[in-house]
Amino acid sequence: MVAAARAWEAASAVPDPEVPCVTVADLGILRSVEIEGGVAVARVTPTYSGCPATLAIELAIEAALRDAGFEARIERVLSPAWTTDWITPEGRDKLRAYGIAPPEGPAGKAALFSVPEVTCPRCGSRDTTRISEFGSTACKAQYQCRACAEPFDYFKCL
Amino acid sequence: MALFDAVLELADDHLVLGHRLSEWCGHAPMLEEDLAMPNMALDLIGTARTLYDHAGRLEGAGRDEDALAYTRGEREYRNLLLVERPNGDFAHTMLRQLYFAAFMEPYWQAALSSSDSVIAGVAGKAVKEMAYHIRHAGEWVIRLGDGTEESARRMQAAVDALHPYAEELFEAGAETGVLPSREAVRPAWEASIARIFDEAGLRAPSVAYPQTGGRQGLHGEALGPMLAEMQALHRAHPGATW
C-alpha cells in the first residue's frame, strides 16, 4: 500500500471523542491526509467554532499517524466551513444505530423559527418533539419520540 | 494597523459576551437553558480565539491569544458597551443576545466573500451559529413579551434598558478593505428586530442619547470587575499550564 493510503487508513480510524461510534472520517472533519516532504499532513476542519473536542481530535489523529510510523503534522482548515452534509451515509447509519438521530435533509440557511421533522432512531416514528435546542454536546439537540416515549439526541443540521 | 484594531474589536465583542453568558452556568432558570447558554458561550469564545490569534499575527509583536485576552486592562478593551452589560434578569440576557446575533448574522454573511481567508473562514462557521442564536433568543423574547403580565413587563424593561446601546453596533471603524461595512447591516438588523418585537408586542423606545464609547476604551463600571475575575488566574500564574 502506498504511504498516503496507509496514512489515511490510520488517521481515518480515529473515533470522535464525544460521539465514539463514528470516526473523524465518517463525520467528514478529516479533510485529507497527504505525504509532503516525508511528513504525513492531516487537514482537519472543526465542527463548531468552540467545539471543545477540536484539540483532542487533532492530538488523537497525530498520535494515530505516529503509531503507524509517520512523522505527522496537523493543519486546521477553517474554510470551507464544516457542514453536516459532510457526514457520510455510513456515518449516518452508525449514528442511528447508536441512538442519535442523524441530521435531516441538506444543510441550508436555518430558517427563523423552523423546527425540523426528526425521525426517532429507536422506532422510526416521525411523531417526535423537540425538548431542548441544546443537548449533551454543542452539536446536538434533545428530542423525544411521542410514539415510543424515548428521549434521544438529534445531531443538528448545520 | 487598522485591520489589527478592527479584528481586535470583533474578538473583544465575542469574548466579553461569551464570558457574560458563561456566568449563567449553574444559575439558569431551567436545565435546558443551563445547557444552552454555555453552549452559545462556547461558540462566541471559539470565534474570539481564532480572531485573537489572527490579530496577534497581524500585529506581529509576539502577543498570542492569551496575551491579548488576559493581559490587557479595561481601557485597552474595545468591545461594544452592549456586550459588557451585566446579565440582569433572563429577559435582559436574551435581549442582549438577540441584538448582538441579529447584527452578527448578516455581518458574517457579508464577510463570507472577504479577501482575508481567516475572516472568511470564521464567517463560514459563525454565520450558522449566529442564525441559531437569533432563533433561540428570538423565541424567548417573543415568549416573554407575549407571555404573562409580569413577563411582558420585564421584557419591555429590558428593551428600555438596552435599546440605547444598539446604535453602537453600527459605529464605523477605520476602513480595512476586508471587513464588511457595519452600517450596511442596519436594514437587516432593523427588520429582524421589528419582526420579533411585532410578534412579542414590544416597543422600541426612541433614543435621544445613544450610549457609545466602547470602541475608544471608555466602558461602563461593569466591565472592570468582569475582567478582574476573568483574568485573575492568568495574572496570578502567568504562563501556567496543566
TrEMBL record, chain A:
Domain MIP18 family-like: 8-67
PaaD zinc beta ribbon domain ranges (all copies): 111-156
Family annotation (InterPro entries): Fe-S_Maturation_MIP18, FSCA_dom_sf, MIP18-like, PaaD-like, Zn_ribbon_PaaD
Pfam families xref list: FeS_assembly_P, Zn_ribbon_PaaD
Family annotation (SUPFAM superfamilies): Fe-S cluster assembly (FSCA) domain-like
Domain of life: Bacteria
Protein name: Phenylacetate-CoA oxygenase subunit PaaJ
Origin species: Thetidibacter halocola
Gene: paaJ
UniProtKB/TrEMBL annotation, chain B:
Any one Gene Ontology molecular-function term assigned to this protein's record: phenylacetyl-CoA 1,2-epoxidase activity
Biological processes annotated in GO: phenylacetate catabolic process
GO cellular component entries: cytosol
Assigned keywords, A-Z: Oxidoreductase
This enzyme's EC code(s): 1.14.13.149
Top enzyme category: oxidoreductase
Entries under InterPro entries matching the protein: Aromatic_CoA_ox/epox, Ferritin-like, Ferritin-like_SF, PaaA_PaaC, PaaC
Protein name: Phenylacetate-CoA oxygenase subunit PaaC
Organism of origin: Thetidibacter halocola
Higher taxonomy: Bacteria, Pseudomonadati, Pseudomonadota, Alphaproteobacteria, Rhodobacterales
